[in-house]
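pasting for the record
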Amino acid sequence: MDIFDLHCDTLYRAVTEDISLDCPAAEVQLNRDADSRRLQCYAIWIPDSCSGEEAERLFDAAFERLKAECKICRIHLLQRGESPRGQFFRNKNTACFTVENAAALNGKLQNIQRFAECGVRMMTLTWNGANCVGDGADVEDAKGLTPFGKNALREMERCGIAVDISHASQKLFYDIAENAERPFAASHSNSFTVTPHRRNLTDEQFRIIAERGGIVGINFHNAFLNRVPERASVGDIFRHIEHFLSLGGENTLCFGSDFDGGTLPKDIRNSHIYYKIYEKMLQENYKEALIQNIFFNNALYFFENFDNRQNMV
């Protein structure tokens, strides 16, 4: 089984708890999922309480840890300029470095180029609060892109780092939609229509991302799956998938599990759940091509196309 997962927080746990990416206690089970081939996006989460030099140091520590862990755990670390598709099919497990919260930039535009040289392919602009780029989902009377944020958006697009609007405020989302020249992602966000949580996407937002050639990753965090988090289950994942498919999301939908960063439903323990989801899709008569799109093709195409556009800049 082939899987492309757009978001997990296992790297943050590795840095702050000093555990291995291959730790049995981690929810991402790369080398323990013997029958799968995986491209896993490893995000370094920058908490809203962490800013300035501290945030930049956390990024640097995460990069060094990711390089070391990939060698130890036999994971290919995607390098700048490498084709995600080529590496996906060449290696059993591939890691893609991403950033969650542009506070990591420490207000320095030149850090975007530096991050790109470290292999960063995607950056979530905010967490729930405000930073140098804009406001997150929990900010009251939120504003959109700051002046620095507008410059950062242009520089990210120039350097080949995809914009990720998961956690963004409504105002920030629409500022990105108005100003972005390239497709963008919501790496780990669900449907607001199904579960009306501020972190989920409205139908209009989903359509905008889809129309731009972007991608949306289904998040397994219980509060984003069900309005009563304690009742969340694998079945809720299918409710969100079905709703997004009803909006024409066949080429947009992906997975962005939020493993090791969220609270999983009662019937999900770790990434072995992908086998159950895959089997249930087959049982529910999903077409094989659609399953492959959701599990890996849509994400692969997004980054492959993004890289091709970068080469033309």
